Amino acid sequence: SRKRFLVTGGAGFVGSHLVAALLEQDADVTVLDNLSLGHRAAVLPGAKLIVADLSDAQAVDDILSDGPWDAVFHFASLSLVGESMKLPFKYLLENGVNGMKLIEACVRHKVSRFVLSSTANLFGTPERIPIDEAVTIEPHSPYGESKFMIERALHWANEICGLRSACLRYFNAAGADARGRIGEDHDPETHLIPLAIDAVLGRRPPLAIFGNDYPTPDGTCIRDYIHVEDLADAHIRVLDQLTHRSVRYNVGTGRGYSVTEIIESVGRVAGRPVPAHLAPRRLGDPAVLIAGAESLRADTGWSPRYTDLDAVVETAFRWREAHAQGYDDRKLAEPALA
Ligand code: UDP
TM spans, by residue (predicted)? Predict the structure, then answer.
C-alpha cells in the first residue's frame, strides 16, 4: 500500500525537496508548516499542506491521530545561527521545546520512525576534518543546542519508548530541484551561494567576502556544499536502518570548497564574474567544515549524485534567475504598501 509520511517544515528549503522526492516515489505526503519561514508554493501539488504551528498541541495531535504514519520527518525550525546568538531562548523554546513535544506526541501515537534534520553546528569548531560521528558534541550556538536538545530527547524516546530515529547532521545545503519547480528562498538571505547569484544578477550589492586571512589555501573559509536533492535522498535511505535501531549520520560530500571557489563557480555558471569585495570576518565562522559521511555511505549505499560544484550551483542559479521575487505567493499575500 502507499506509504504515508508527515513532514514538518515541508514548506522550507530542504523539507520541500524531501517532499518532492517522496512524491516521486508515489508516497502520500502531509506537510505541517506554520509558513513563518516556509512558502505555500514550495509544497508541490500532490502533497497536503496543513498550516499550523508545532506549539499547537491540538493540531499536532489531530494530525498524528490520523495515522498510521510510516515515518515523521522533522524539519520545522528556526535556523539563523546569528539570530540565535542574540535571542537564545527563542531558539531553545521554539526549536527545542516544540521539537520535544512533537517527539512525545509521536511516542503517544505510536509512530515508529522519526528522521531529524539536525546540523553540523553541533560540532562547534572541530579539531579534526573531516568531522566524523564520533567527535565531541559542543554546540556552537543556541541554534545548534536546540537541535541537540531534540537529539537527546530522541535518544530517550529510543531507549525507553522504542521510537527509532535518525539524526542527520548537515551543514551547507545548496542547489535546487533539477526540474526547476522549487528552490531556495530565505528572508533574510544569509547564505553564500544565493547571495553570490543575486550579486552577479545585479539584484543586490556586490558580495561581501567575510575574511581572507583564515588558515586555508586561499585564506577564505571552506565548507561542504551538498545538493539538496542528495540530502533528500539521504533522508529516505536512512528509513531502512530504523527497523531495529536508531542512527545518527553526518551528511556531506566529503569535499570542501572555499568562498573564492564558490564565487568562481557562480561566475562560470553566470558567464560573467561575481562583483565582490573583501569584508571583515563574520563572528563565529570556523575556517573549515567538511563532513565525513563514511558511515552513511557504508550503511545505506548513499552517495551524492552531484559531485561537480558547477552542477550544484547551476540548479540554484536557474531557479533564482527565474524567480526574481522568490516564491511569489508570499509577495502576493502581503498587502500592498499604502
Ligand atoms: N560568506 C561570505 N559572504 C556572505 C555570506 C557567506 O563570505 O555574504 C561565507 C561565510 O563566511 C562562510 C561561507 O561563506 O564561510 C558559507 O556561509 P553560509 O552562510 O552560506 O553557510 P554557513 O557555513 O555559515 O552555514
Answer: none
